[in-house]
Amino acid sequence: MRGGGFVQIFKDFSNWSTVAVVPHVANANNKISRIFWIAIFIFVLGMFGYELYILIAKFFSYPATVNTEILFQKQIFPVVTVCNMNPYKYTVVKSNTNFQGVNNLMTAYSQAVTGTYTSDKWGLYEEKTETYDLDARAADALVLEANLISDANKAPALYSYSDLVQDCMFAGQPCAESDFTKFIDPVYGACYSFNENTNLNYSVSREGIQFGLKLMMTVTQTKTSGTTDFLPTTRLAGARVGINSRGNEPGLDSNGIDAGVGYESAVSVTLTQHVRAKRPYGKCVAREPDGTDYYKNYTYTLETCFNGCKQRDTVAKCSCANPRLALGPGDTACQPVKADLDCLQDLKGNQTNSDPNINLLLECSCNPPCDESTYTPTVSLAQFPSTSYYVATSSTAGVGSCSSSNSNFASKTACQTWYNNNGMILQVFLETLSYELYTETAGYTVSNVINDLGGQAGLWLGLSVISVVEMTGLLLVMGAFCVSGGAIKIAPDDDEIENDHRIKDVEDVKNELDHMEKRHGEMESDGDDGPNDNKKEK
Asked: What CA–CA distance (Å, rounded) separates 187 from 384?
């Protein structure tokens, strides 16, 4: 009975269904036709299933698209950080007992270069035949030695703002020391960041060199008296410059720009902004997980994440932390001894063996930030000062202008020569007010899936929303039929058919038609008999 009930349900469904092929299968006139339409239905159903699989797989791959916009508007001026490449004044290092360890290191380095030193606690002499390794070992040792000195005791040997910056102009207007934020870098000593303070509002509405920051700086590798003031380990005379967004770690050691003495360095920058998608459509993060963020006081970037990863690797392998990078609350800085320096050297991967450096992409679980603003610099150089330029400065703290009244120099030529060896101009400006905004968004959403699914269903099965409602109704009827154990009527019985007014109406019409047909037949019969009777009478 139940099997017959299911047959009746499907038969009724096929008569009023809008699903493609189904009515053809149910109403086929012969077996061959029915088999043909069944084969067609299986084929289109298989194609629809294949396309459905592709749609689902595409959705769960969570593709993302990148929209690019070029915007043009007023921009906040970037943070510009400047440091003397020479971190400490050599004259102070030699005379201040707080720098005894640094002074001994400088002496050992100088003797290792000449080959007259036989041993030292830093292992410099062992590297004397490899100039690159010797310089790298001495630079690392200097950072470790300086880390033993408190910032307060370092102060006499650090370059003050007035030592470094002689003139400051922004968009043609003077700027002052209050526009800079000072911090102590483990490699470059005292550094000064322009426009880092959130209370400042330096912004530009015009591009070009005249609407940027202009600094005249003196790094003083030699004093006006001729005394050398650079450490023997300082290889370059100039300033280290960092350009970044407010709140970012300057990244001087990895992303800084070298601006040399005797030049005007014009740095044009362009802004690029990235807004990345979060999971599952992207891998961006706002910060490193709690407890692992070494740079929690700065905006999260890939650079801070990589530095934190390198520091964790250093602590794990050397049992001490590298002072070049941020230290965690429980970290102990490496000591300026050969064992610690050897370990730091091994982590770099030296120049004489195949030991690899740490693979940041594979060994660090770092993902890009969700919101990021970066500045791309382009540097051009010109000689400073020219042979005929009268070097002028309004500053009274430095060596002054090359005027005849300047007692620091014997002549204008001597003044110009000193500035050529110790002075420089730095200009930082926006190349254009337009910038690129890259926005990463979900590339394939639920709405896209529904649209594509409707298209494929209509193409292969002729389905529409009405068809879905019909099939839903079929499933509900079949479910009710199964639950009721076949007790639900799926066809009217004889009494219902007999009492159905529609059936009665049909029967009345049928009887009326039969009556009319009978009357019509009688009338035709009467018409045929009339003439014959007349003939008989005659």
From this structure: 27
